[in-house]
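Support request, please re-run this one:
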Amino acid sequence: MTALRSTLDTSGAEFAGYRDAMLAKLAELEAEHAKAIEGGGEKYTARHHKRGKLLVRERIELLLDEDSPFLELSPLAGWGSDFKVGASVVTGIGVVEGVECVIIGNDPTVRGGASNPWTVRKIFRASDIALENRLPVINLVESGGADLPTQKEIFIPGGRLFRDLTRLSAAGIPTIALVFGNSTAGGAYVPGMSDHVVMIEERSKVFLGGPPLVKMATGEESDDESLGGAAMHARSSGLADYLARDEPDAIRIGRRIVARLNWRKRGPAPGPVTAPRYDEEELLGVVPDGLKVPFDPRDVLARVVDGSEFDEFKPLYGNSLVTGWARVHGYPVGVLANARGILFSEESQKAAQFIQLANQTDTPLLFLHNTTGYMVGKDYEQGGIIKHGAMMINAVSNSKVPHISLLIGASYGAGHYGMCGRAYDPRFLFAWPSAKSAVMGPQQLAGVLSIVARAASEARGQAYDEEGDAAMRAAVEAQVEAESLPMFLSGRLYDDGVIDPRDTRTVLGLCLSAIHNNPVQGARFDGTGFGVFRM
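Re-run finished. Output below.
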């Protein structure tokens, strides 16, 4: 392997300026994460504790193996909407009895844990991750069902929550429900469709319709306990497999269920792990503020990959895209990283060949985004940029090895697609606070609209309103800038979270470990088709 030599001047004023800008963005990010952690706020948190109940993150902490990490997913879901940041549910990957599991926990301090439109999207994403990576699912249930004022956005798509549970089970992926309180209406189907169900005596209440609804529908008088209490479900309906004394006991039983799953990873084990030769703290000063100045992604790789060792592929060809082989926490990866933003024909062909090679060797791919898209212009169009870009997108689309995408800078236009953006189903996609993503940069988009408007005005024989044009451009630039920022995009679940650059190696290692619960296998070149095309 070839050791990378970082060119980053960590003692210079430029590095210090970039670092300060990144720390300012991280401070904003931490403030938004704090909103997710506070749930419904101090009033409802205190009320929940007064009832002798644990908060959702306290339940998760007890469930996980001691001192093991928890990779929280989509913590900013719902950001910028009318709903609480976090979308009234916590999702993530954690280790329980040595087994990596997807954990989905309702936050009952936010409108009783009711599901809003962002809740269901967040749970959909967690279910996809569980299915793709073969991870058991543990639901920590305490939910009043759908948030009724927004039912029109929940009811129709929300049925997928229950379909996903049954499909996970059909795929041999265990589903476990620990019921901590009310699980009513649609919420009742979570334990109803799980493989293993734990309820808590005098706490858990599971019914399709509570006493008031039953009274209205049938005229029948009933109480919570006889209608859906834990003891009834353990003794009469059979819905409860285990009856716990209290919340810690329910969590203890849940851990024992996982311990008895006889779970084994199916992917190859990691090799020896070597720390990078450069300090991860220095990742704070790599990316220029504003993204108008190019930076070398090798400076990122030197602080992320094992031993800072990287075997570069085609280093002299298409050099605005860096490709090569490395390991992260002992797992092999093929890396595609934008160096100078623009993707030309050479970069596109290089990427297509490299992706095929990774599939031949069953090597997962890591995409580091900092691209303004594919090159435009007469010479490039005549040179075939469309068909060469299509080669790259075709290769990404049909690659079968797992992909991880990390947005560290710009991710604009079709370059976002070629570098395996959200629509191309990477197993995981995270962003740094410095990332931006949109159809094009704010100035370019506003400029295009201005040119079109000016041409239309001239065609009508009218004088062009220059003052109005300036106002339009300023408004469009401000809108596109705001809508391309990582917190906005993360709020809409276009990524799995915005992470501190210093956590990059850890996050990638957790993702790769989760991925290897399933076999890692590329598109097969088995002698019945074609081998690798040299582009």
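The longest helix spans residues 13-38. The chain has a mean pLDDT of 92.
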